[in-house]
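Late entry, evening session. Most of the bench is empty. Finally got around to the prediction I had been postponing all week. Sequence below, unchanged from the version circulated by S.P.
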Amino acid sequence: MFKTVRNRVWAFDAEWIPDPLAGRLLYKLPADLPDKDVFRVMWQKGGATEEDPTPYLKTVLCRIVSIAAVERRQEGSDVKLHLLSLPRKSGDLTQIDERHVVGTFLTKAGQYKPQLVGFNSTSADLKAMIQRGVVLGLSMPDFCKRPNKPWEGDDYFDSRNSEASVDLKDVIGGWGKTTPSLNEIATLSGIPGKMDVDGEQVAFLWLEGNLDKIIAYNECDALTTYLLWLRIAYFGGHFTAQQYEQEQKLVRDMIEAEIAQNGKEHMKGFLDEWDRLRGVLGQVSKDGG
């Protein structure tokens, strides 16, 4: 269990696809080979089978196309939530560039030093961003700055001795089947998990030019991660029952504002699923199930 809840928390999630350039370079593929065929070669080299035609590839071979985070900022008793999403404009070629997506997130993390919260983030999301940052030739001195001793400052590279980064999978997981997926533990906790899109579809959405749908999916995953963090924080005694209810209300208010002010219609489905799950679990509780 994590010991602290910092005044600035980012519950985040990243989406990536096979990097066509990586495939062409590593496997000496023609420059004019279509991306979909490059992907196929990369999956074959990555161990594709009839049962698993799109295996999980090494993160260094993948291009990060979207990062989303729910930011919780607390000043005294005042708590505010914000939805952060990269790229902000899917039609802007500068913003959809991977250097911008990864560089902006790591630069701002280094600047503001939030407590990063993810699910499988220690071995996947964060490592992917670090690896891709190196590949892209980025310089991130503030993010990479490490204290001489664990208690002297934040350290995004030492999850054992620093709570600058909290991986919820590590908090609740174990070995083999004792470790739930994000979808499993979220859904059983009354939190929307996977809905109309899952991670295996992201590469195909990108090939179709549907970056907006990837961003929408990414934002919903960040909301799921944040709500799960709230629930685990409540379990760990960081919030009272009353505070936990108020924190959930802040999430709902933020989502409703995103729909009304920013036109994020996909979040209506998230709210509907949240209400459905809470209704089902509430009825089970009343029935004594």
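Two things to note before I forget:
The longest strand covers residues 62-75.
DSSP finds twelve helices and five strands in the chain.
Will write this up properly tomorrow.
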